[in-house]
Amino acid sequence: MEHRPPIESGCPDGFQYMHPTMLKNFGQWKYHEDIQPGVLKHVAKSGDAVCTVKAGTQRILDLFTLRKLCDIGDQYGDGYVRFTTRSNIEYMVNDEAKVGPLVEALEKEGFVVGGTRNSVAMLSHTQGWLHCDIPGTDASGVVKSMMDELIGEFKSWEMPNRVHITTSCCQINCGGQGDIAINVQHTKPPKINHNLVANVCERPSVVARCPVAAIRPAMINGKPSLEVDEKKCICCGACYPPCPPMQINDPEHSKLSIWVGGNHSNARSNPSFQKLVASGIPNNPPRWPEATAIVKKILEVYKEDARDWERINDWIDRIGWPRFFELTELPFTKFHIDNWRGSRKSLNASTYIRF
Q1: 3-state SS assignment for residue 174
Q2: Tens digit of pLDDT for each residue in 102-161?
Q3: Which among 16, 90, 31, 105 has a CA at the least distance from the CA of 56?
Q4: Among 75, 241, 308, 351, whose CB has the most other CB atoms within 10 angstroms?
Q5: Long-range own/partner contacts, residues 14-22 (CB < 8 A, 24 or more apart)
Q6: Could you give the number of structural domains in the chain?
Q7: Are residues 165 and 290 in the same domain?
Q8: Which of 58, 98, 63, 62 is nearest to 78 (CA)?
Q9: Which of 89, 81, 79 is nearest to 56 (CA)?
């Protein structure tokens, strides 16, 4: 068997893997309709139609599961699949009659069809314990625990609008933005093992890595080392990858925090950043019950109180933050107030106050 040499030019051209009907009608689609949760039908100007079946799959797939998904696509579909940005597999078929058997085969193998329109989409997550070197928690484990609780909302169209949830295993690197985000919150500065810094760390790189300039070179016990200005430190963990002796993870002080109100789109309102609503949540693997309970409570209140097609950030803008904390029964503390010196821009500067 001749081995194929690696291609070092980035991702391959996606058109070679595209369904022939999609390739033929590229950029010429007339409309689409939702047949059922997890199934869309796109109709082109030429009259051609293609159905897409979306199934919930985890981001970290093993080879056995991947082959099983491909076998289902070969047997019940047209043999064309793609993965969404939230790591769900989608099957494309020409014939609408194939949709029923395909959905049935997926559910028989334990895969859930859904995640379209006004549902809770698949939770996206960062690397977690499997790959990353600074996670305070396992992002994929939190996703598994929460999706087990929210699976009914994935399979139905009962939310006011689409809900995107993300989890991040640290605060600074590859975390995404969604309507609700679960982030790790380190609550103490790193502990430095001064005996190892000179042997392991490239000190200028570590100093440059700190986003708030809280790290500076120092001589400790006659050895070149580093020190942290704890008044500046935001406990983000950025210093740990280039310098493992600066240990940030801690079973007691690495907590979870929940942020809401993030939005990327320009559809109904401006894009918005998330805001903190709960912090200091216990980091309790393997099921993280405290964090899951808070997210479920926020979604239940949003589902009951929001108007049709109102995103979470639009709902909060309408009712106001005081009402949000009242409805969700989350405690509001002084730590929720953004007191950073550059936060003046985000504070209310008018006499218009809603209660």
Answers
A1: coil
A2: 999 999 999 999 999 999 999 888 888 888 777 778 888 889 999 999 999 999 999 999
A3: 90
A4: 241
A5: 17/80, 17/82, 18/80, 19/50, 19/78, 19/80, 19/92, 19/94, 21/48, 21/49, 21/50, 21/92, 21/94, 22/50, 22/92
A6: 3
A7: yes
A8: 98
A9: 89
Asked if 141 and 123 touch (Cβ cutoff 8 Å), the reply is no
| 355 assigned to some structural domain | no
Select from 161, 152, 179, 139 the least CA-distant residue to 283. Answer: 139
pLDDT tier for residue 355 given thresholds of 50, 70 and 90: low
Q: What integer is the mean pLDDT of 81-104?
A: 95
- Kindly state the greatest CA–CA separation across the chain: 78
Q: Are residues 275 and 165 in the same domain?
A: yes
**In sequence order, what are the beta bridge partners of 272?**
263
pLDDT greater at residue 201 or residue 8: 201
140 and 160 assigned to the same domain: yes
Q: How do beta strands 246-247 and 81-83 pair?
A: unpaired
Distances (CA, A) of 291 to 75, 210, 218, 260: 40, 29, 39, 13
- What range defines the domain where residue 29 resides? 14-113
* Residues listed for the chain: 355
Long-range Cβ contacts of 23-28 (<8 Å, 24+ apart): 24/48
Residue 109 CA: distances (Å) to CA of 62, 65, 68, 75, 112: 15, 10, 9, 13, 9
Alpha-carbon gap, residue 146 to 180, rounded angstroms: 12
pLDDT digits (tens, 9 = 90+) for 59-89: 889 999 999 999 999 999 999 999 998 999 9
